[in-house]
Design a protein that fits this description.
Layout: E1 6-13, H1 15-28, E2 32-40, E3 43-50, H2 52-69, E4 72-78, H3 83-90, H4 103-112
Antiparallel strand pairs: 1-3, 1-4, 2-3
Helix pairs in contact: 1-2
């Protein structure tokens, strides 16, 4: 069984420019945002799916917007994305990577009565 989704990606420096680029992209073509990630250093990436032509059009529009704002980093379209890749990307799309706390941070949190082990909001 073939999977006919295309994956589009736009990467910017800064969340504000990414939001503007994503907004422009989804207003331009019939695509769906599946996730975004913010690995580090202000670099953020948004991922779109849809049919190949729509994703190409959306990525082109979003890229243009990011370039106008001066925060464009890269973009790409993968036509006919393998289903396993898409499943991996959407397994937990908004999970933030938790940074390890130092002993000093844990001591300060304990003094302030903060307990990240019980019911922390992520």
């Amino acid at each position: 069984m073939k999977y006919h989704y295309a994956l589009g990606m736009i990467e910017t420096i800064g969340l504000t420019s990414l939001i503007a680029a994503a907004d422009e992209a989804i207003k331009t073509a019939d695509v769906r945002i599946i996730t975004y990630e913010k690995p580090d250093a202000g670099i953020v990436t948004v991922y779109f799916v849809g049919d190949v032509a729509a994703v190409q059009e959306a990525v082109a529009a979003g890229t243009k917007k990011a370039k106008e704002l001066g925060e464009y980093r890269s973009s790409n379209v993968i036509p006919r994305l393998d289903k396993n890749v898409l499943n991996h990307l959407t397994s937990n799309p908004f999970k933030k990577r938790e940074r390890k706390r130092t002993v000093k941070q844990e001591h300060t949190e304990k003094k302030l009565g903060l307990n990240h082990d019980q019911g922390s909001e992520q």
